[in-house]
Model the fold of this input.
Amino acid sequence: MTDFGPREAEQALSDIKDIVERLRQSHIYDISSQILIAAGVLVLAGNVANFLVPRYAAVIWISVNVLNVAVAAALSTMGGSRTGVQAFDFRVLAGFLMFYAFGLLCCDVLGHFGPRELGAFWSIYFMLFYCLAGLWFGRAFIAMGLSIIVLTLVGYFFVEGAAFLLWMAAVNGGGLILAGLWMRRI
Done:
C-alpha cells in the first residue's frame, strides 16, 4: 500500500473536478440537443406554413414561439427531475419574456420591419444568444450560432421572394435540427 502525499491528493482532486465538469457539460449538451431538435422542427414547420399561408404569419409565429418555450420548459424540467438539477425556473421564464419583449420592441416599435427583415432578424437575434451561451457552455453553441447567422445573411441578400421562407426553413429549422444531432455526438 502506498501513501498518498499532498501532490497525489491534489492530482486526484483535480481529476475529480475535470470529471464533474465534463459530466456537467454533457448534461447541458444533452438537454440542449433535445431542445434544439424540437425547436428546429417547430421553426421548419413555421417557415413552411408561412410559405403556404402567408396571411396567417402572425398566428403561425406566435404559436411556434409559445410552443418553443413550452417544449424548452418541459424538456428542461424532465431533465432536471432525472438529474436533480433544476434547469427551468421563474428566472428562465422571465428571461424568455424579456427576450421576446426586446425583440418585439426592435421589430415593431423601432424598426417597422417587413416580412423578409423579420425572418432574418429573429433568426439572427436567437443565434446571438446561442453564441453568448457558448461563452459559458461550450464552443458548439458558438459554431452553430455563427453558421446559422452567416447562412441567414446569405439568404437575405441572395434568395429572392417567397423562396426566402423555404431557405429559412432549411437554414434555421434544419440548422437547429442538425446542431441538436451534432451535440448528441459530442
User: Anything to note?
Assistant: The chain has six helices and no strands. The chain has one domain: 6-185. Residues 6-185 form one domain.
